[in-house]
TrEMBL record:
This is Glycine dehydrogenase (decarboxylating). The glycine cleavage system is composed of four proteins: P, T, L and H. GO terms for molecular function: glycine dehydrogenase (decarboxylating) activity. HAMAP family: GcvP. NCBIfam families: gcvP (TIGR00461). It is an enzyme of class 1 (oxidoreductase). It catalyses: N(6)-[(R)-lipoyl]-L-lysyl-[glycine-cleavage complex H protein] + glycine + H(+) = N(6)-[(R)-S(8)-aminomethyldihydrolipoyl]-L-lysyl-[glycine-cleavage complex H protein] + CO2. The modification N6-(pyridoxal phosphate)lysine is found at residue 717. CDD domains: GDC-P (cd00613). Belongs to the GcvP family. Its EC number is 1.4.4.2. Residues 20-448, 470-740 form the Glycine cleavage system P-protein N-terminal domain. Residues 787-908 form the Glycine dehydrogenase C-terminal domain.
Amino acid sequence: MTAPSNRSLSSLEQKDVFVRRHIGPSEQEIAAMLTDTGASSLDDLIEQTVPAAIRLPQPLATGESRTEQEVLAYLKSVAAKNTVAKSYIGMGYYPTLVPNVILRNILENPGWYTAYTPYQPEIAQGRLESLLNFQQLSMDLTGMDLASASLLDEATAAAEAMALAKRVSKNKKANLFYVADTVHPQTIDVLQTRAEAFGFEVEVGPATVLSDESIAGKDIFGALFQYPTSEGDIVDIRDQIKAVQDAKGVACVAADIMALMLLKSPGELGADVVLGSAQRFGVPMGYGGPHAAFFATRDKYKRALPGRIIGVSKDTNGKTALRMAMQTREQHIRREKANSNICTAQVLLANMAAFYAVYHGPEGLKTIAQRINRYTDILAAGLSKKGITPVNGHWFDTLTLAVDNKDEIVSRAQAAGINLRLDLDGKLGVSLHEVVTRSDIAQLWDVLLGEGHALEIDNIDAELTAADASSIPAELQRETAVLEHPVFNSYHSETEMLRYIKRLENKDLALNHSMISLGSCTMKLNATAEMIPVTWPEFGELHPFCPAEQATGYKTMIDQLSDWLVDITGYDAICMQPNSGAQGEYAGLLAIQKYHESRGEGHRNVCLIPASAHGTNPASAQMVSMKVVVVACDKQGNVDMDDLRAKAEELADSLSCIMITYPSTHGVYEDTIQEICDVVHQHGGQVYLDGANMNAQVGVTSPGFIGADVSHLNLHKTFCIPHGGGGPGMGPIGVKKHLAPFVAGHTQFDLGNENGAVSAAPFGSASILPISWVYIALMGGIGLKKATEVAILNANYLVAKLKGHFPILYTGQNDRVAHECIIDMRPLKEATGITEMDVAKRLIDYGFHAPTMSFPVAGTLMVEPTESESKVELDRFIEAMLSIRNEISKVEQGDWTLEDNPLVHAPHTQYDVIEADWQHSYDRKTAVYPVSAVAANKFWPSVNRIDDVYGDRNLFCACVPMSEYE
Ligand SMILES: *Cc1c(COP(=O)(O)O)cnc(C)c1O
């Protein structure tokens, strides 16, 4: 068809061009798919699928679709309202130099940032290796036996340490956690919030109390110290640690990762748990995040460790292979008995920190740490000469200064574009970092002393050299070597580094290879335009506690995003603090609890949770000391209304809330949802609607409209923040008016309430909020609604094509599914012995990541295609599934035995098919090129199927000796 040559301008302008880029299927494809699903139009499909009572009567107010150029130009002008000052605030956040090879090839590379959590380890060996490097780095620097693969931030890691202490302490009757007053204030804030919800007591006081007589009176299950202290001092805490342990408590230390390069490790001082932020290892401050927290402990506490741990195992050929270890400890299996509710963590940022260590190596890191320390020494010596002696007697990078002209200094600092730490009474804090240069020291003297001080860096440096004194106490200087593994000593040229990054990337299947149809996880497009602002310095280089007037760009962007999310969710207010979905659950349940308390009903503590719920729901309920009562589901997978009514009535006096997912985790729009809300409300409870499935709601219905009171939004699912291989994420919560006074506050930032904090930073991982902002701005209200509609179409199209071959477990009205569907593998397993695991691994041979396996129903696969996948890609997936079905038939019919067929031996590696004697009853082509489409885009897994049991029996969570790889 040729276009007419004389077209009007308005027909040539591309109004919704981004909508057409984000949504996979073209208009023609949509039409064809509608025909295949038996719907006459998208509207018709939605009418058939979504119960009429919950369909929104009015469109979203979120405006028109805009072009990428327009949106980015506007956001740039908003970002320009932020002031990038020189930050010397410290408190756990430091300017850092992100090596450009890491910036471009990790942080800005979809091969790394679009990957999913490594649940299919055979196609995740690259990021698993990098996470193992992160664990080794954590272990070496902390002096501990075992480390996890990242937590959300330092403050929540401290809260996890407190919870671990309570679990493992031998002092079972103790209910007190002691916190040294030298701990960062935001950490104390988060600890207090967490402790109150658990029913623990927290006492904040001098660290020294613990080693003197008065410890006898303290019945503690644990304590936390900061090393170096928040105000910069380096104190020998060996006696305090021992005192805690003598009292049968668990000694926890929050440590600075850079300082640990020069300091004796907390492990050598006797600590039981060591945690902290890895931010200053090459991850921008980003106005609070995302960054990875590290968490390390003793071997004896390994089963109590929160979060994910990467372990070493073997594949079916005996080759070394990596995987997530001891998953049975986790929330998705143990529910309210899990160690924590951590699901999404900070994988991408842990990888950046690990690569930073790989690139610099032990010598490079030591030089960086020594330079920071030397600049601090020089700054201090100059100040002392002029009569300002630091309050702290020792330091790594932070000086606390008692000054009588604080106001004068602060105004000089402001004029110079410098931020100092100001929250200390009558004192100032100055924290140096990797970015500091000679001229910065001279400028700091100007600011602190006034000009004309006549200090010379080289003179002071020479004097210090002659005096041979150290600002780090001799008995606390590191003597043990770190990072001796070859991985930290091999890739120091940029060429070697680039290739190492690429080598690992090649082992991983991410969205830039093929569709990742993970039910409940919404692996949709993370558009390049959405990612671009993340690495703008105007967003990246702000300290979370900088003066509010320097962050007006952030405020504009966050307020705008909140307004849009209010419109989309039907709630009245948004709290941006929680930095994962599970953190949002916790924050939302806290708000519910405080609301009940405010009405004199603080005794309400029962949380109803349907049997099908995601494991984080009960795990979060446990964190606010709620009692979980399970509500049954009926044969159709819906909440059993009789059971719900009976339980709500029976428990009416103690009912706090229900946690429910919508559409249900079974992928169905239950038409009883409003009734569920009513029943719970009638009995005095609140409705927490898990927003992980918002991708089936946006523009079509909303939790607020349905009648819920609070929800978290997984911005890393519905709103396009990439999964990063297992994090970062953002889990802001939307609340109705009556809950708004009870959302999180923050000690370092006025959020308009006095409530405790749930994250270290006031706006969580603020620097990834622009991703969701750009997505909404680009799509506009109509585009967002269309995305939902096509997500539903894509799922129903898969059902139409697959249902004759595999049973689809649950459907709603008119036999429709929502945005995902569950393929039941159990009947085939019964008939043939082929399992859902075999199918998942066989999909790898076809170039696909498996759908969600055995959630929410064991023995099933849950497929969520999202709106971003085109018909071509869906058809490729369908072809693979039908071909696999055919293979299962061959086993069923006896053409292949159950022991020798391409399913049970999947995935096949390149090595398998070059072996001279091929022993199988199927040929090599069937093994690795089972359908012709594979040939054009073959993905080779780097290992064969991995043995989970071996890995857990022989737990090994450190870098593997090089010989193992030979
Ligand atoms: C992903 C998910 C969560 C948890 O979110 P995280 O960001 O991983 O903590 C909770 N509920 C459901 C239904 C989910 O799919």
